[in-house]
Amino acid sequence: MAPLNGTFDVSRLDQQVQIQTNGKKRKNPVDLKECALKELIQYDCQLAGPKEDPRSRVTCKPVLRLFRQCADGLTVETTSWEGVHDQ
Questions:
Q1: Residue 25 gets which letter from DSSP?
Q2: Radius of gyration of the CA atoms of the chain, in A
Q3: How many angstroms separate the CA atoms of 87 and 84, rounded?
Q4: pLDDT of 84 above 80
Q5: Mind telling me which InterPro entries this protein's record contains (predicted)?
Q6: Residue 9 belongs to a domain
Q7: DSSP state of 74
Q8: Which of 10, 17, 29, 61 could form a disulfide with 80 if both were Cys (CB 3.0 to 4.6 A apart)?
Q9: In degrees rounded to 5, what are phi and psi of residue 77?
Q10: pLDDT at position 85, please?
Q11: Is the pLDDT of residue 52 over 80?
Q12: Is the separation of the CB atoms in 13 and 62 below 8 Å?
């Protein structure tokens, strides 16, 4: 698993992808708009009722996640960024 990065505002995503996880600047700049857009659906599931009650129900809601997959193997989650970067 890749190392965790700190948090930053979505408006800085274009700048953040220019820096590798080791802190060095990428040799070839990345333009996220040129990378392939991919999507993933995850599910957020909640138990409605006590665990011990056999009548309790699990309800799940889909959560759409968007990613940009670049030619150099870089994959970046862009869910919050999509539609915001070009305004």
A1: B
A2: 18
A3: 6
A4: no
A5: Mitochondr_Som1
A6: no
A7: -
A8: 10
A9: -75, 130
A10: 54
A11: yes
A12: no
In the three-class reduction of DSSP (H, G, I as helix; E, B as strand; rest coil), residue 37 is classed as strand
Q: Per the structure, how many domains does the chain have?
A: 1
Is residue 18, in this structure, part of any structural domain at all?
no
What pLDDT is recorded for position 72? 82
Number of CB atoms found within 10 A of residue 44's CB = 9
The model's pTM: 0.73
Kindly list the distances between the CA atom of residue 87 and the CA atoms of 31, 37, 50, 84, in Å, as whole numbers in the listed order. 16, 18, 46, 6
Q: How confident is the model at residue 62 (pLDDT cuts 50, 70, 90)?
A: very high
Does 1 have pLDDT greater than 70?
Answer: no
Paired sense of beta strands 36-48 and 57-69, if any: antiparallel
Which residues, 6 or more positions from 33, have their beta carbon under 8 angstroms from its beta carbon?
Answer: 85, 86
Give me the residue label for tokens 């890749």: 2
